[in-house]
């Protein structure tokens, strides 16, 4: 039997309990520190994910908070072909109002147009630039991050519009004030309210309307016949 003493070989029960008491809090402290570290990592990861989602979603949500919402709906292959059909025998500069992911601008550039796209969403603009570079038409295309109401389209001869009904009356007035008589406006999905289209193609959501501004504005150039004066 072991006597009650505090010798190194046989420590007393009190010494053993004190030693155990010292070791247990240390182990618990290390475990709590590890749990606290994991908690901080999880919190930081969740916070970073939310910030990233906010940065990505904001350009898509912000346009919807405007008075006139112009959502991003990709153009179908049939719509693009109908737009190109309306551009046959046309030349000069082209602009796509609300260019989205750039597919209309890129398709027009492949047909020889110097094509420009205006889009409010920066993510779509950067993606459009990448697609133009990938398809080898980046030298014939330009994409700008801009609000369409703050841009003048006066120097464009061909205009493509993917709009919504709420914006078409105001846009019709803006284009009529800015464009020259030789301009052609191509509306996709929704027609303009007052203009009468000169050409229409497609069905359903793929319908495309083309308006020659010289007819819509009534500014056809007429040749003047000069009759020689007769001597009396």
Automatic annotation (TrEMBL):
Q: Give the stretches traversing the membrane.
A: 38-57
Which processes are annotated in GO (biological process)? methylation; positive regulation of sensory perception of pain; regulation of mitochondrial ATP synthesis coupled proton transport
Q: Where is this region: Disordered?
A: 1-34
Superkingdom is: Eukaryota
Name the keywords, alphabetized.
Membrane, Methyltransferase, Mitochondrion, S-adenosyl-L-methionine, Transferase, Transmembrane, Transmembrane helix
GO CC terms in record: mitochondrial membrane
UniProt-listed SUPFAM superfamilies: S-adenosyl-L-methionine-dependent methyltransferases
- Output the Gene Ontology terms for molecular function: protein-lysine N-methyltransferase activity
Regarding the membrane, this protein is recorded as: Single-pass membrane protein
This protein's major location comes to mitochondrion
Q: Where in the cell is it found?
A: Mitochondrion membrane
Q: Which family does it belong to?
A: Belongs to the ANT/ATPSC lysine N-methyltransferase family.
Per its record, how is this protein called by name? ATP synthase subunit C lysine N-methyltransferase
């Amino acid at each position: 039997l072991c006597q009650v003493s505090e010798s190194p070989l046989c420590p007393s029960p009190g010494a053993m309990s004190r030693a155990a008491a010292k070791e247990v809090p240390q182990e618990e402290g290390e475990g709590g520190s590890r749990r606290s570290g994991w908690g901080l990592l999880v919190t930081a990861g969740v916070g970073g994910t939310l910030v990233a989602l906010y940065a990505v979603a904001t350009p898509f949500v912000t346009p919807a908070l405007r008075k006139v919402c112009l959502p991003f709906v990709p153009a179908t292959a049939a719509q693009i072909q109908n737009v190109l059909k309306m551009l046959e025998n046309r030349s000069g500069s082209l602009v796509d109002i609300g260019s989205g992911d750039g597919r209309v601008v890129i398709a027009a550039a492949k047909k020889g147009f110097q094509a420009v796209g205006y889009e409010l969403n920066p993510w779509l603009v950067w993606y459009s630039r990448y697609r133009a570079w990938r398809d080898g038409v980046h030298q014939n295309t330009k994409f700008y991050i801009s609000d369409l109401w703050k841009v003048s389209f006066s120097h464009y001869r061909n205009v493509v519009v993917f709009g919504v009904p709420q914006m078409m009356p105001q846009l019709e007035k803006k284009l009529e004030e800015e464009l020259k008589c030789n301009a052609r406006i191509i509306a996709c999905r929704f027609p303009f309210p007052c203009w009468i289209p000169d050409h229409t193609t497609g069905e359903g959501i793929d319908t495309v309307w083309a308006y020659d501004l010289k007819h819509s504005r009534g500014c056809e150039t007429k040749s003047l016949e000069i009759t020689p004066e007769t001597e009396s």
